[in-house]
Amino acid sequence: MLRRALPGLPLLAVLLLLGCRPGSVEPEAAQPFVFRDLNLQQRDRQGRLLWQIQSPETRYDISRRLAQSRQLRGVIYRQGKPLYRLTASNAVVINDGEIVQLEGPTRVQRLDPQRPALLTAQRVRWYPSQQRMEIDRDPRAVQGELELSAGLARFLLDQDRLELRQQPLLRRGGSEPVRLALGQVDWWPASGALIARGPVQGQRTLADGAIQRLTAPALRGNTRSQLIDLQAPVHLEDPSRQAVLEAQATRLDLQRRTAASDLPFSGRYGASDLAGGGFRLDGASSTVLVLNGCQLRQPGEQLSAS
What distance in Å separates the CA atoms of residue 4 and residue 13, rounded to the nearest whole number? Predict the structure, then answer.
């Protein structure tokens, strides 16, 4: 078994070295080679780094063109500058770098301090030349206080876009957590922009255990600002207070726990009916401010105000 330190050597050079073995060695009797501190990298036509990976130990099977590494770490670059740092417990490099399968706890961390983000998974299939990652085991993305998860994800590195499929969820923790179940989601970590097709089904769990619910056909939002724009029609419901609100396009501010719209709405609170030209719902105090054209109807009386 060959053990040799090859720091900073690209895989092609490793293959050239292996090709210089004496011809008397029988291929079927050859054992995998073990390299210490292996460093693989690829550059673009201008000589700028595209990606590099390192491992303290890699076993290479020349007949299968397959390398098995442990404690993998690496960097993905854009225009020669580091953009993402990745780590994985184990990795399998297939066809001399055509595919890199990251296995075990895997982290892909955005290195921009102004726009940080973290992607984690239990298995990632990375196609370096295509600048694409396929994630089919517990993909999760975190930016600030928000987390995105799904059953399946695809990370298009050249577009810096994460596609989440198979029951994606958007969550915000805290004392009154918010959970939005979505259809298909596209998310851009650099800007925080998010587009989700529906149906959108959300719930907010209050401190007393009561649950508020919402539905909408789709949404657009931003994970950095924590603003979510729900497309009409929007249905908000608080069963514990016998409150229902039917609205048009509505903005959620997840950080401030508010919902607002400047378009006509109608609602019900217990035995009272409410309508107006716009509203602001304060989740912290459970109060609704009618912006204009307020109409309140209760059994036996009616109130209108501009």
Answer: 13
